[in-house]
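Researcher: I'm preparing a figure for a lab meeting and need a structural model of a single chain. I don't have an experimental structure, so a prediction will have to do for now. The sequence is pasted below. Please return the structure as tokens so I can convert it later.
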Amino acid sequence: MSNTKIVNFMSKQYELDDLDKKILSVLMSNSKTTYAEIAKKLFVSAGTIHVRMNKLMNVGIIKGAQLIVDESKLGYDICAYIGVYLDKSSMYERVADALTGIPEIIEAHYTTGLYNIFAKIICKDTKHLRDVLHRKIQNIPGIQRTETFISLEKTVERPINLLKIP
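Model: Understood. Here is the structure written out token by token.
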């Protein structure tokens, strides 16, 4: 019996099967792979891939594609993570909206644990990081304090492996 996942598809349930997972795996390893190349790898027709891709997009499993840029080659040498403590949890939406307006913040998550919000920030150097922290982030009403962690090296970056993880 194959390992399937059922998702809602236009008020019907769509069963994610092994072919869907294989298609997603190919594209997650190289999003520039053409439908014809995927079809050849998976021994199906390009039309089958096209139909499956449309279903995966319509159901919201595939949300789009993005360009991945090496920020360090553009002069942004500091990647840091910021744990944000809020004065009150009810301040979350207001603070999250303010964080969205800071271009150096490239991710922010509402979290459990020590921090209310955990954010990823990209800066040119430590002076730039200090300026963003002191002039932008720590001046947002509702933020009690922050903790900053500078990344020394990215060890793992990959999409989920649908063929190995149940």
